[in-house]
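Extended Data, panel c. Modelled sequence:
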Amino acid sequence: MTATLETLDGLSRRMTLNLNPAEIEAEVSKRLTKIARNTRMDGFRPGKAPLKLVAARYAGEVRGEVLGDALQRQFSQAAQEHNLNVAGYPSFSAGENGAFIATFDVFPQIAVGDVSAIKVTRPSVEVSDADVDRTLDVLRKQRVQYQAVDHAAREGDRVHIDYTGTIGGEAFQGGDAKDFPVILGEGRTLKEFEGSLMGMKAGESKAFDVTFPADYFAKELAGKTATFTATVNAVHEARLPEVDEAMAQSLGIHEGGVAKLREEIRGNLAREAKRRIQARVKEQVLGGLLEVTPFNVPASLVAMEQRALMEKAVADLKTRGMREQDIQMRDEIFEPQARRRVALGLLMDELVRANGITAGAEQVQALVDEFAQSYEDPSEVVAWYHQDSHRLNEARALVLEENIVNWVLERAQVSDMSLTLEQLMGNK
């Protein structure tokens, strides 16, 4: 058996494989004979069916298996002889004169570029008392309660209204409701509509016009003016809970009161800030590595990654309630993301190999402990990770990635930039 190798564009290769027909047929006969010993066929005792009948039923399937095994075996041997580092899986097709063609990619030879040319801006953040106060305000608003009041409706109040609307004297779909709640100033209804309810008291009625925006989601209403009549049934004022012992307990703080609550919030904000900073820095480092280290990426690996990304996206949409037949998606849209992911994977593997970068057991444990701190019972989370080697491997991969980033940072051009927590979070 012989194999010839051709170099195509980039990382693509083509190998011509010549199998020995006599060896193939001998193996087919051997397998058919083995099948015949155990096959049940109508009119014959088990294992007594004539070989001709067994061959008529199974020969095609068996020959395909034998050919597949022989091609894989010869391809593997030839790849070793030619010192090929095959990426992904070969694609086999029939050639001329009984030969077979294997088309495949090889891994690129990667020489990491000048890491010292990479520029990284590293944010620096201190969590302030004001940041803790803002978080407490959010927590209070999440626990808001409303009480009925006698005063005229003002911003922040919740009004319950009955309303009807017409356009040109005709009712329209969605133009009426009973006991409809509106929180004034929240912007969940049209600004003109909310504004017209300001100053109304329970029991009052009012007629007013509202013009729908030209880009209104209901196209049949876009740009039209409707006349509404609204009656206020009740006005409720927002009452935020006090930041006290009771609020702390409602948030799972059973000892230490408000001081402990503030401490927990500060710790959570610090962890989130650290995560955001690491993400920003990592993105700059990985982008810089790709920029200074151009190389070809195996098309077969990109195609596999594309399919995986699409399958994940489809599965996610299905969990959100979409029917599979309604999901119109092509894997081409994932090509840029897939190419980048494959390139980064290959590049990081090379950095690990060439520089002996590892993930220490103590680092993995420290990361698991850090993850666990966000939960009420950290010991349960730590135990959960150690119950499954797959979970620990995921943590190990994150540590390895972090060590690669740190290795680059020690050699790159890094400048620190002080930010507020709001700026880091993108709120300013």
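The mean pLDDT is 92. This feature is highlighted in the accompanying rendering.
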